[in-house]
Every structure is written in C-alpha cells, then in structure tokens.
Amino acid sequence: MKHMTLLAGALALSTALTGGALAQTELSLWYHGAGNAVEREILVGIIDDFNSSQSDWKVVLEEFPQAAYNDSVVAAAVAGNLPDIIDVDGPVMPNWAWAGYMQPLQLSEGALDGFLPGAIGKYNDEVYSVGLWDAAIAMYARKSVLEKHDIRIPTLDQPWTKEEFDEILVKLKDSGEFDYALDLGMADQSEWYPYAFGPFLWSFGGDMVDRSSYTTAEGALNGDAALEFGDWWQSLFTRDLVPGTSQDMADRETGFIDGKYALQWNGNWFGIKTLEAVGDDLLFLPAPDFGNGPKIGAASWQFGVSATSDHPDGASAFIGFAIQDKYLAAFSDGIGLIPATAEAAAMTKSYAPGGPLEVFFGLSEAQAMLRPVTPGYVVEALEFRKALSDIANGADVADALDAATDAINADIARNNNYAPAN
Amino acid sequence: MAAVAPTNQRLKTSLRYLLLVLVGAVFIFPIIFMVVSSLKPDGQLLRDTASIRAFLPVGDISLDNYFAAFKRAPVGLFVFNSLLVTGITVIGSLFLCSMAAFAFAFLEFKGKEIVLSLIIATLIIPFETIAVPMLMVVNSLPSIGPDGLTWGWLNSYQVQIVPFLADALTIFLFVQYFRDLPKELIEAARLDGARWFQVYSLVIVPISGPVFATAAILKFLAMYNQYLWPLMVTQSEQFRPVMVGLQYFFQLNTAWGEVMAYLSLITLPVLAFYLFLQRAFIASIASTGIKG
Amino acid sequence: MSNKQKSLQSHPLAGWLMTAPALILIVLFLVGPFILAFGFSFTNQRLISPNPTQFVGLSNFEQLLGVGVLTLDPERDDAGQVVLDAEGQPSYPRLRDYTRNNPDYPQYDGMREWFSFSTGDARTYVLARDTVFMKALTNTLLFVIIVAPVQSGLALLLALMINQKLRGINVFRTIYFMPVVVSIVVVSLLWRFIYDGRNGLLNNLLEFLTFGHFQPIDWLGNPDTALFAIIGMSIWQAVGFHMVIWLSGLQTIPLTLYEAADIEGATPWQKFRFVTWPGLRNTAVLILVVITMQAFALFSQIDVMTNGGPLDSTQTLVFQAVVRGYEQQNIAGGSAISVILFLLVLSISLIQRYLTRERT
Asked: Where would you find this protein in the cell (chain B) (predicted)?
C-alpha cells in the first residue's frame, strides 16, 4: 500500500472498493457544491479528464453543502484531518494560509497570465489559491423605469455620483410606485454584507482595516470617510429608501421582479433568473461613485493545496489542469459566474461579446477590488456586518464604527498582529 | 333530571372539542404550511406567503419538488443514516439511563448524591459551548478497524452515537419518575429473592411504559435534529444525517419548494415514531390503572 | 425480616455497577470537554492559529465583566445655561471623548455605554467593557424569567386537556406536539412572515381585531419587540415538549384516586388541587429544572432568525459563546462565556433546589 495518512484511510478504503487503478496515488479534493448537480457534473468531468490524462494521480471528490463548508473545514483542521486539495472562499484564504492549513501552489510560470486579478489568491507574495471564475455585483434596473422617471443611465466612465444617486432614490421613492426605491438584500446575514456593502465604504474612502499595515482599523473604519459613509448608510433606512434587516427572504428573491423595488443591488448569479423574468428591459449598471471611483468586491471560490498534503506536486498538477479555458467556460455556462480569463469568456454563452451578461466582465475588470487580504479578515467581516446592521437599525454611527474598530483591533492584538509564522 | 343531564353532557363535550380544536389550530399551521408549500413551484410559494393562500393547496400543484429533491441529494441515504444513528442511540440510552436512574432512585450507596448532582449539573452545559473540546476528545480516542489500531473517531457512525448514549436529561427524567413508584414493589421482589438487575428488568421496566415512551420521543427528537455535531465530525457524504443534508438545498438560488418537500419527507419518521409511542402511552394507562 | 432490612441497606456494588456505564460516558463526553473549555478560558487559545497558546489568567473574564460608572454634567454655554438639544433635553459631552484615547480617564478606555440615567442635571453612565456580553446576559435572564413559568404552566394546561378521555383525543395529542417535530428552519421561515412588519399575519390579525386602529409593528426589526417575538415563538415551539413530560407524570397517578374523588363528589378544581398536583411533585421539579436549563441554552432561534439583532436586542449567552468561539475563532473567549453561564445556572439551580426541597 502506498504511503498515506491514517486519517485518509477511510476515504481511501471506500474508493479502493470501487476499483481504482492501483498505480495512481490518490488525492482527496473537498468542494463546496453539494446539492448542485450542474457543478458536480462539471467538476466530475474535470476530475475524470485529469485522472485519465496521466498515470500518477487519481483525484477523489468529496462534496460539502456550501452553507456548512467553512465550518466543516475548520472542524477538520482542528482535528488535523484536511484533504490534499481544498476549495476556499477567496477572502478567507489568508486566514487559512496564516493558520498553517494551506501551502503555496506550485504552478508553472505564466500559468495565471490573463486571469482576472480577483481570481488569483495571493498572500505574502505567494499564490495560494486560484479561482476558475469571479463574481460581480451590479445595480439591477429596468430601462423603462429609468426612462419614465427621467433618470440618466450611468456608465463605467460616468457612474452615478453620490448626490445623483441620492436624488434618484428619493425620486423613485416619492413616485409612490414602489415599496422601496432600492433593495440591498439586508436579509442575507452571511458574507454578503462585507462583499456587497464594503465597496460602498471603499468608494467613500474608508476601509475595514488600514491596508498599509493591516494592524489597526483605527482611522480606516472610524475615520471621517467612514463616518460620512455611516451617516449616508443610516439615512437610507431613516428615509425609508431601502428595506431593513428584517426584510423577508421571499421579498429579496421576488421583490425586484415583481416591481416592489425599483432598483436592486445583486450578484451576477441572479442575472439569468432575473433576465428570464424581466427580459430586455433589464439593465446591469455599475456601482455609484461616492468619491473614490465605483467599486465592487472581487474574489469568489478558489482551489488551493492543504498544508498537510503529502503530495503538493500532485495537488498543484490538478489545479494547473483545471484552470484550462474550456473548464472555465464550462463552469460559467453551468452556474452563471464570470470566467476568469477573456479567452474563456469568449467561449461562453453569457459572457461572450454580445452575450446577455457580457457587461459583468467589464464591471469586474473596471471596478473590482479585493477585500482586505489578511488573516484578520474573518473577524473584520463579522464586525463590519454587525456595525452595518446596527447602524441600519438606528445605532449611533460613530459609536457603532468605534465598537467595530475596537473589536477588530482587539482581535489583531490577540493574534500578535497576525504576523506570519516562521 | 334524566332528560336534562345528557343534553348538558353533550354541550359540555362539544365545548371541550371546540376548545381542543381552537388550540389545535394554533399548533397545526406550520405542518400545513410545510406540506402545502412542498407542492408549489418556487415563485408561487414565495408570493403566497403574504396571504392565507400559504395554507391552501391552490394554484400550480404537483409533486415535482419531491422528484427534484431526490435528484438533488441522496435523500434515502440521509434518512437511513439518521434513523440508524437515532435508533441505536435511543435504544442504548433508554437502557443505560433507566438502569442508572433505577440505582439512583432505589439503591443506597456512598457517593450517590454527589454523583447524581454532578450528572444533573451537566444539564447546564449547552452542547454548542463544548462542541469544539468534544471534537478534540473524540479525535484522540482509539479505534480498531481494518487498518489496525488508529486514533480518532471522525467519519463514522460511532462518533455520532456513543457520545450521546448517556445524558443527564434522560437520567433525570427516569429518576423523577421512579421516585413516584411505590417502594413496596421493590421490597416484595427482593423478598422473593430477585437480584437487583432482575428487579429492574422484570418489575420496574414493565410498569414504566409512559416514561420510556416520553424519554424515547425526547431522545429521538434530539438525535434526529442533530446538526452541528455531525457537521463537525463527518467529512464524507456516506455518514451524513438529514439535517446536514438539508444544507444541500440552500444554494445561491434556494429552491424553497424542494426545501419544503425534503422537510416534509424527513418529518414523516418523527411523526410515525410519535404515533407509535402514543399506543405505548395508552397501553400504559391501562397498566397504571391496574397497578393503582 | 432480615431480608427486608437488607433491601433498605447500602448496596454499593449493585449501585456502582448499574450507574457506571452512564457515568463513564458522561464523564468522558460532557465533563471532560467542559473541563477542557474551563481550561481554555484562562488562556488565549484560538480555534486555528500558528501562535502558541499562553496562560492569560483572568483577563478573558475581566474583559467580559469589566464595568465602570461615569457621571457627566450637561454642557453649558458661556452664560452658564444648560445647552438643550433639538428635543429640548440637556445635551452632554460625547462619551467617546472619555472612552477613546483619553489619557485622563485610562480606566474607561475601550468601554462603552451599557445604560444611563439622569440624576438632576447630571447624567450617570454605566459603562461596560463588553456591552454585547452584558446585553446577552440580561436578555438571557429576561428570557428565562418569562419562559420558565409561562411555558411550564401552558404545558401543564395542554397536558390536562389532552389527558381527557374523549374520542379522538389522540389526534389532538399529535397536533399539539407538531411544532416540536417540525424543523426550526420551517418554524423560522413561517414566523418571519407571521412577524413581517408590512403585511404579516400578526399585524393583519391585530388590525382586524382593533378595527384598523392598530399600527403595524416590525416585530423582529424593532429592538423593543424582537426579544418578545422570539419569546412568543419559542414558547409556541417548545410547549409540546414539556406537555409530553407532564403527560407522562399525569399517567402515573392511579385512576382509583380519581374514582375515589368522584365518589366523594369533588369538583374538578378540588381533584386537581388534591389529587393531580400532589401526584405531579417530582414531575414539576423535573420540568422546572429542564425548562430553566433549556431557556438558558437559547441559541437556534437566534441563529436562524435574528443573529442577535436588531441592536443586540436578541443577543444571548450561548449565541455569543458560539459566535466568538467558532465564527471569530476565539475559543478562549467563547469558553469564558460558557464558564460564566455554567456558574450562573449552577447557583440558580442550587437556589431552586433549596426552594423546592422536600419539607419534612
């Protein structure tokens, strides 16, 4: 029997029963897509292609449901039971890398040329993970509604300014045609807040942490720019322009389509579904510019190699194999996300020139910015979410941002400034 | 007089039923909502939640969600895993906990009070707060398998069963029940020369139907609804229970109809088990009557 | 004769043998992990981290429990008049000037307002180092104080109702138990739309009952009502659980006692007071203990429905222990909350035990 960790024994045994080729060394792969048949089919296709393309490695897939994935991996890490290849949400990667659960990829020179920056997971000047796709957010709108209310259609070169955007929201609200002018998706209490609303803060000039040192949030999250952002954010709710944190999930999914909301801040993964319901009238608009350019979040799920893998070369070989344009295109066609390269985009139905979602590729290229690349991001994201919820619910803006700042700083201090372990 | 009484009686009975039905309405609506929703396509399901239509099987009704649910996830495997884990745990814990409770209720031995207090004190510890240390414990337990002696219990059925075989609530439930039983029963059996285990198994267990039924249903629910623990200790699909399986249905575009179909399906075994135990309740009423 | 005496004497071997299996399991899987957690609470242990674990003494507890009191005089203008804000209330200097980087008040550094009250013109602020924890603590206590009596009382009422000898009573026994059986996911989804601030069922019902005079409330979105909304839903969901325990207690009461009471012409209330209630003594102790403990463990509803919000109005101790220990990977901080919770509930249950002790 080949060398393998004791803990991988059970996995290996179950696959040995299915009669794998004994000459190949097994590599376990964990993926967050359980329950999604399309994703599974594509991924299994890539794995089969890889396994038959060479005789050294045999990748074995274990799928987890997305909502439980991070908890599962952290528990497995605590128990010292990680697979060879893991998939990781982009902004979480530095945390796992710092904690010693991931190791840098061994990709050939130039393998990532032409990749959207958001699809490359870099930490400490090393590439730890790479994504086959990126995601993007846009302002969903109806052309007919904008025209009726005499609202300018913004472009990437000339996005809505803060004042303009504010007037638009008030105008739409005052028209009386809608329950709310804009739906932000406040019901979604997961990673959505930092991913979707962090960019507003960035555009105001603030941030979740001072990116020059990554050792304090003071001044970034509670400085003047952040306070200005907080006041604006709170005013959205006090003026009843957007639904609050108690919005129900049903309204998030159907409110814009049903015409209850005039605008919706939503991800490209809702694009196809909304297009089917709304048709040609639908517009995907860039983010408003609050002073420092329009911004949206970058980075989605990516593949990396676990630190405990005995075969990092094999794991990297698989990842290098999986990032071929044809697979990028297949994933994009399957689940609607933005392929990581322009060449792959050209091969897809939705993102090819003239395709219905093509605009997202441009939005991503022009506006995308990474969430803070630091192990502390995990706590920064949670505190950011709490501060935004509290401000939306009427908390004092300065106090809420101070509280988040202090909590983030305390976490950074508890972890020795998240200095890389040597 | 003979003519008035029956009418009066009938009125009283009707009022009783009316009250029962009114209270029942308060409790039954989630089930109706769940089952009715499982028959609707997503769009309609969500729109209907704003009105009374949420409780009515109207509109586009079909079993499509059920077929889709089976396609999305190995529903049968999840239900099997849950029933296996739950079944073994329920049977094991009824035995271990009732036996321990018997000793606490009827036997005198040194240190009993302290031990019982210790056990009851563990009731205070919410599982969520010790999940991580518990993971560390099971991860360092020895296990003998096809690879010989290995360490760690992850990815198995036993890791979902053994830690829950004894719990304070079940022991406490039995102790409190046993304390109400007449001591004379025990003494009579001991006079006949029965050993303690025989007194427990032949005298006490047969007359304790209601508490066994109660303990069984409570334990069944606790085990069947396990989520955090199996999530932490099972990494392979092969061992996943129903509540972890539920997460398969929460995608970026959640298919609510399928969620409802899946939940309706996994609720069936619990209801069946409860109905089955109700017979035990009834049977035991008869026996308590005789006993008294 | 000697045999009878023997049965009342000590039986250590049989006693230990019969309790040992359960005891060993509880020590291994409950006591052991709790002792580990207890140990973590005195360190800076992280869930995952490359840094070595260090002993930090009581600092986790000081961080959670630190409080301070600060009294501020209202701002006055040059003429010495109290400055009034837009609502006609005296205005005070901003707290953050005292609690953030103020070298004159190092003892308040990093603290935040927990609550405040006025004494004459001055305003007294009670500050806490960790206001979220303090709110979690008070919310949890409030939850327990309301839920324990209300839920056990309602459960007993329901148990009495379904313990009647009526045709078809089994149907009701099943129906009343339904909410316990249904997954919390269904329950929360459903109650979210019952509590919906615009066209929720509850608002519609109240509007109907008051002929339109009722102003719709966003039950889960309003800090004043959110905890009560959770309390209502929790009682509704769990009352069937305790109803079943009461029911099993009711069924230990010999029918002959009721027959005897009938012969003596007892009223239903007399039957309850002198037959049923005395027969439920041990069950009552059990229910009280179990409900109290379960109420202290409030977690799932919060996790699924409110995430502790709005404005921390539904934070609870266990929810915070999980958020910190797991989500924030600060297992030491989470463990410290668990330890505080344990000590708190232990002292309450000792008091409960003292109050419900058998008076001989």
From this structure: Cell inner membrane; Cell membrane
